[in-house]
């Protein structure tokens, strides 16, 4: 069983972290638009556009954190955790949209006669916003990893990208100030657009992977390692090992082959033992379901049980540890 107080504390941490990100994002967005109205810089406008995305994405991420914490119900028996991956995909889509808006505004600036005013003040405002974004981004990424929150980590990565954006803007403005060539300004804006386009695409892919239940090789390796460490003679084979993410929770299921002479209660206790070992060893695993299968004669050659009334063949060779590439597949003889 999970410690309810720990779960509640983790939820509160995630909620407050995202609320702080939303408030700070709104203030930084206002500061960047002030900088744009002062200078008229296309590059600063591109940075301000991305800040709009930051605020909208943080708002949706905040809602997703709240909803993912709600308990399962009749309509959602597995809970509401997957809303977090919609939040990540939504943020990625908004970033891609922002990149398009930046290019739409920046490209014509190459061909327009215009002036950029008060560059020094604009540079100072953008630098200040970048410093705050960097601190907030690092905080969100660390908090997201510690609380296993995809929206927090994604928002943190987005803010770090925003820092790169701002650095590009600052470099462009400094070059304008040093050379007097105004085309450095829209060029910086276009570079910003390409940079955040890559980030948005990566977030969308990450969202699709989780929504489509893409396998997590690292987690599978941990599970198999635990099973090998605690392997019992009555655990003859495992197959069809699968994991599924629901927000910061993970569901694990697989088939366990046991001697067919075991009684129902004994087989149930073996499955229960595995479940408890995985739950106690992996903090992210919330549920483990083990489907028990009776052994078949060909498995006698790979069975560890010393005394078995159903044994028809002796053990052949050395019993090899389970490997991920084998246990994720449907049942087959261990030697195949």
In short:
This protein is mainly α.
What keywords describe this structure?
disordered N terminus; Alpha-lytic protease prodomain-like; 3-stranded mixed β-sheet; mainly alpha; 9 helices; Alpha-Beta Plaits; 2 domains; 336 residues
> Looking at the structure, what is the overall shape?
elongated
Radius of gyration: 27 Å
DSSP summary, beta strand count: 3
- Structure annotation, total helices: 9
Helix percent band: 55-70%
> What top-tier CATH class of the largest domain fits best?
Mainly Alpha
CATH topology of the largest domain: Alpha-lytic protease prodomain-like
Strand order of the largest sheet: 1-2-3
Tell me the strand percentage band.
5-15%
The biggest sheet amounts to: 3 strands, mixed
**Low-pLDDT ranges:** 1-6
Structural class: mainly alpha
* Distance between the first and last residues' Cα: 38 Å
Overall domain count: 2
């Amino acid at each position: 069983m999970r410690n309810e107080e720990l779960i509640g504390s983790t939820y509160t941490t995630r909620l407050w972290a995202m609320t702080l990100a939303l408030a700070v994002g709104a203030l930084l967005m206002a500061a960047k638009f002030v900088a744009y109205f002062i200078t008229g810089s296309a590059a600063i406008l591109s940075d301000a556009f991305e800040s709009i995305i930051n605020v909208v994405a943080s708002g949706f991420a905040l809602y997703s954190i709240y909803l993912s914490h709600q308990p399962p119900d009749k309509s959602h028996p597995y809970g509401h955790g997957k809303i977090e991956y919609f939040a990540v995909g939504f943020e990625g889509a908004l970033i891609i949209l922002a990149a398009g808006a930046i290019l739409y505004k920046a490209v014509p600036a190459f061909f327009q006669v215009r002036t950029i005013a008060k560059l020094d003040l604009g540079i100072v405002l953008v630098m200040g916003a970048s410093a705050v974004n960097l601190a907030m981004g690092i905080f969100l990424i660390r908090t997201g990893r510690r609380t296993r929150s995809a929206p927090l980590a994604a928002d943190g990565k987005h803010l770090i990208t925003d820092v790169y954006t701002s650095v590009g803007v600052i470099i462009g403005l400094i070059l304008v100030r040093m050379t007097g060539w105004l085309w450095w300004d829209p060029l910086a804006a276009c570079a910003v657009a390409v940079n955040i386009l890559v980030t948005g695409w990566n977030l969308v892919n990450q969202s699709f992977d989780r929504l489509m239940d893409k396998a997590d090789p690292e987690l599978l390796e941990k599970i198999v390692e635990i099973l090998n460490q605690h392997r019992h003679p009555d655990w003859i084979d495992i197959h069809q090992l699968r994991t599924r993410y629901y927000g910061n929770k993970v569901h694990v299921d697989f088939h366990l082959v046991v001697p067919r002479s075991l009684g129902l209660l004994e087989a149930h206790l073996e499955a229960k033992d595995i479940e408890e070992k995985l739950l106690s060893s992996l903090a992210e695993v919330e549920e483990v379901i083990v489907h028990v299968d009776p052994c078949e004669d060909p498995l006698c050659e790979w069975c560890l049980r010393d005394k078995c009334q159903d044994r028809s063949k002796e053990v052949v060779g050395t019993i090899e540890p389970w490997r991920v590439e084998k246990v994720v597949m449907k049942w087959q003889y261990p030697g195949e």
